[in-house]
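Example: Deacetylase sirtuin-type domain-containing protein.
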Amino acid sequence: MATPRTDTASFHAYLTTLQYPRIVALCGAGLSASSGLPTFRGAGGYWRTHEATSLATPGAFLRDAGLVWQFYSYRRHMALTVKPNPAHYALAEFSRKVPGFQCFSQNVDGLHQRADHPRESLQLLHGTLFEVKCWSENCGYREENFTDPIVPALALPVDGKDPTATPDISDPKVPLARIPIESLPQCPRCKRNALRPGVVWFGEQLPMQVLMNVENYLNDLAGVDLILVIGTSAKVYPAAGYVQEARQRGAKVAVINMDANDVPAGGWEDGDWMFKGDAAVIVPELLR
Ligand code: BJW
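Written out as structure tokens, the predicted fold is:
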């Protein structure tokens, strides 16, 4: 297997050779880690005693919609509390400078949008925490929603001793209320079903328009010059497959990750880069 380069000089030199750069960033939870949001896998990948990914399924919602809503309500609250970091701003700025740049993001936290990332160069592969939709696809109701908490039953508990403090319900030692489905957000259109978060769970199709935008970009005859793989374990498909697809269209691969072992499927090829460290520091350096 080839050894990736680690110097920013060769990376910047490559960028200067591109007349009409066609560059993709595939982003994951590590991009928002230094903003203070946990990732899915590894040490921070648990919510209470649950693997975060085990709550991101339609089956989990069917089994215990109250628990799944508590998980998402907590994450909506956290995402609203934190701020975009320098990497979100650098990606937004780069997209204003480079017309052939596209950001394919798996993140649902709304931080790209709050960094003013231009909408036309942002493909939200896994939806957003700030859209909710009817559980029934036949009804099809969906709305943007930033209300925190979205219903009173999902308000964070108040500390018995200090009413100004909110105990951290991601800590399994903090008791969690059982919330009946009737107290969860209800669909205002069909009035028969609960609403659910507008994110893409395992086994669900990614938004059709987003899939089309991604495939149109990757299949463009102009090819792809570079794919930046930022803060993602690149284990979840179809997103993970975009690295190989970009390679097949001529792209070099640059990985930005805290963990140098998080290598994209297929391994390294000549001309790739691995930048080990915090995306919030490295991405602005690379895209300046
Ligand atoms: C830092 C850092 C710092 C830390 N700086 N770095 C092909 C093969 C095998 C399986 C499949 C396949 N195709 C489809 C599947 C099934 C499945 C899948 O991929 N399974 C795999 C796990 C094997 N895929 C699906 O089900 C997808 N749907 C689908 O394919 O539908 C087909 C279909 C067609 C027609 C009809 C019906 C269906 C859907 C996948 C949806 C994933 N959803 C989630 C939850 C979203 C909602 C939510 O947020 O709760 O998306 S799961 C979770 O994983 C979330 C993330 O977006 C996604 C990726 O995780 P990410 O972002 O990479 O995070 P981590 O934690 O894994 O990595 C963080 C990285 O950051 C690490 O590397 C750290 O080192 C690093 N890091 N701090 C830089 N400061």
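The chain has a mean pLDDT of 95.
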